[in-house]
User: Fold this.
Amino acid sequence: MATTKAPEDAYTAAPFVPEHADLAALREAAAGCRGCPLHRDATQTVFGAGNTGARVMLVGEQPGDQEDRRGRPFVGPAGKLLDRALSEAGIDPGETYVTNAVKHFKFTRSGPGKRRIHKAPSLRETAACGPWLAAELRLVEPELIVVLGATAGKALLGSSFRVSEVRGTVLEEEIHGRRERLVPTVHPSSVLRSDDREAAYRGLVSDLKVAARSLA
Assistant:
């Protein structure tokens, strides 16, 4: 079993990740993760969820406000849009496993009532959370990873990743010691922010159809 204490200046979840654990044990251990400072302000750890034998794993950036409050990934507006896009592309959302590169909500407070506003995690924070994602990949063993946005892409494929250059293509890369197939696309939250939401949504569905065809 891994230890559960890390140096104050260390940015890594590794000491908190138990060896030889199943997903339930990983989820329980992740609740106590102190691998980077993000745990201090977040309500709770938001670990991956879904079909543990899924052929498809979807990896996003980090939990949002609603996910942080409810403790599950992709339960807010972006998650609802993603489920609709998956269904339209021919992928059953109920047969996927969804998670994030970073397991705690990073935010700033702004506006009336000091609403919690999403703030992108740093590369250091994303790297710190990497051991959790590696453990999830090892246990789920998906046939395909759908990469949702730039942060997830950088977490899996390195800091030079650019979603605009490779979206809607099937990549094959060595990830955490496993040969993986990946289809990158935009994060569904970017569709919600788009000036032309319908065109952005169609682009997301088109990319997900590439993923669906690669599983056929």
Summary: The longest helix spans residues 197-215. The CA atoms of residues 61 and 151 lie 5 Å apart. The mean pLDDT is 94. The first strand starts at residue 49 and ends at 50.
